[in-house]
Amino acid sequence: MANVTTPARRIASSAYDSRLVRAAVAMNENDLPTAEPLLRALLKEDPFDVRAIRLFAELAGRIGRYQDAEHLLRRAIELAPQFTPARANLALVLYRTNRAAEALEELAKVSADDPENIGHANLQAAAYGRIGEFDEALALYELVLRQAPNQPRVWMSFGHMLKTVGRQADGVAAYRRAIELLPSLGEAWWSLANLKTVHFCDADIAAMEAALQQADIAPEDHWHLDFALGKAHEDRGEAEAAFRHYAAGNALRKIRLPYQAADITAQVDRSIAAVTPSLVAGLAGRGCDTTGPIFVLGMPRAGSTLVEQILASHSMVEGTSELADIGFLARTIENYPAGLSALSPEALRDLGEQYFSRTRIQRHTDKPLFVDKMPNNWIHVPFIKLILPNAKIVDARRHPLGCCFSNFKQHFARGQGFSYSLEDMGTYYRDYVRAMAHFDRVLPGEVHRVIYERMVEDTEAEVRALLGHCDLPFEEACLAFHRTERAVRTASSEQVRRPIFREGTEGWKPFEPWLDPLKQALGDVLDAYPDTPATA
């Protein structure tokens, strides 16, 4: 029979179970296969053991099963309302699932119970940034660093926020301070590289190489250093050394992710089978007819941030960020996407209204239109048009080799599992093109495609066409987009603060000797670009 002691006593007593200790050690070492059976055994004996529940939730979160993690953490808090570590974990899950406002509510309770914990304040500041409250975020970071100035990871997070608001010099200084305190902090080195404007000196490269040689270097520091060293060597024209580091970082990252390329292929197959002309005709115009969102989607590193910046330079458009709300709403539909056919007009309208309700917190102006720049929304184009029939959709597309290699050398914090293998990258790009070709057939004229190379060659013509699709009058400010002052939260934050540049169209060419696996995976999509191959 399960132990029926009070939650407070159970928290205290479970700390002495050797299996819980071994599971915690395994989690600390990222040894999930060892931790999982230990935690399952503990919970089988006592399903009310809140410490084991919390660790099991953390395990679920590490493999991306955030819904399971949330349910477990809420159960732990229900059993032990004063179990502050579980509430802190819940705040992190809410933050990672783009529910920053809810995360802040939990963090207010956590901070009251554990006011000295810098980690809670760090997450609180990041959550403020996620909802666009940048002044609050920066003020909180500054407060924390006055109280505890020798925290390298807080300096790094402070640097992220400074970069976002365009204070690049201050951001660089914050990253450098983090490195000064912890020279092996790979993410700080990568954050400097990721600005795309910092060129590492000989001493920087030597310091990174020395950090890589440390016997106890964490895998996360290792792959961040590899990506940073790849950028350092690329900037020096040393393509072979750069590719060696990019490949090493990607390989180390890939083995820790559950991504399977076949899953995306199957998802596209299901979408093509489910989204038919008759389905679209039968449900057309039945969603929420409020105007507002402009969805910019496609492959990451394809120019979507540039498109967003151009649009956000218009007097009628507000730029927000990469919003996860469409994906969240799609996951609420049973048997998605086939389940779309079972939705009533009321359900479609309700889903559209939920989208506006969920995204309202990201709005900070009274401009009538706003940009939702989540690249991965390409798989949800029919869903978007069914629940938001007046939404505008823009597909940002870039040459397959330029786009895919740019992804390969870009370390994403999370959410882009396809990007750590050239083969996976080519397959993903091919599936994306295949899906968009089908959506063009069943939703003719609904998606406006911006070809990056054309935008570079004839910017004004492409900007006018883009604005026309969005039913916006032309404004000169859209051509001077680099002068628009706004927070930009993506890897292209510094690039869109400069006039349009051409080097992005040629950057893959020095690495062509190593791109055969990518070319083979792309197949005829590569040969047909910018058109869609007949077989897509």
Explain how this protein is built:
The protein has 536 residues and is mainly α. It has a domain at 261-483: P-loop containing nucleotide triphosphate hydrolases (Rossmann fold). It is 58% helix and 5% strand. It contains 27 helices and 5 strands. Strands 2-3-1-4-5 form a 5-stranded parallel β-sheet, with helices on both faces. Helix 6 (84-96) runs parallel beside helix 8 (118-130), helix 12 (186-194) packs parallel to helix 14 and helix 23 runs parallel beside helix 26 (516-522). The longest helix is centred in the last third of the chain and has 21 residues, at 422-442. The protein is globular, with a radius of gyration of 24 Å. The protein starts with 6 loop residues before the first helix and ends in an 8-residue tail after the last helix. The relative contact order is 0.08. Mean pLDDT is 90; it is low at 1-5 and 489-494.
